[in-house]
Amino acid sequence: MMALGPDEVHLWNVDVSGLVVAEARRDLVHAECNEADAISLQRGRDDFIRQRASLRRLLSTYTGQKPNALKFTRGAAGKPALLDRQPQIEFNLSHSGTHTLIGVSSGRAIGVDVQVVRRGVRCLDLARRFFSHAERAYIESVAPADIDRAFFDLWTLKEAWLKATGAGISGGLDRFSVDTTADPPRLCLGDQPDLPPWVLRRVPIDNETLAAVALQGNAKAVIRVGNWRPAESAPTTAALRGSLA
Question: Which CATH number fits domain 13-108+221-236: 3.40.50.2300, 3.90.470.20, 3.40.50.720, 2.30.40.10?
């Protein structure tokens, strides 16, 4: 099994493209196969199978269980979790375009988000509609050429935190703020000082793809990032790079 310390977090940038769909499908359970079959477009169906199989293969290396033996449940807000967590493993998955990002932690809530920067999206209008007052003011202050990147930078950080809490976008993007001018980014929860601390970090992917991780707890977390191709090998700690600042 792959070891994961109490203050250690592993982030995997997963390339699922080489997975043979028929083989990946064997790692899924019956309900997941049915969920895949309900997707009308073959590309979407194949992506779902590859991503879910990759998640199961990754978690199997931390738990010692076979991929298709892992049992999942969902929290009150729908966030997926392992049903029998021995050891206590928390995880989260996000995908955008050809990128799949999976975060794994031990005993602390985690959320990840990855977004390909899309040009031509009405980012300023979206920020004014969905973001907090402080975030809207920040986006409006950015040079026009930088608005798209600033918007998606904010979006990934906010979405990572909402996924970590289990709330998702339905939790309300405007009820909290992220200060992206701080280093590292800082979560601002207004009049809720009793909430536990959170760690927000950007995750390096490539020039046109932004990603973030949110972790419940203090800044002691050691966040390591690695690349993994499930079609070629199992993940190993040797593939993980040093901690994010």
Answer: 3.90.470.20
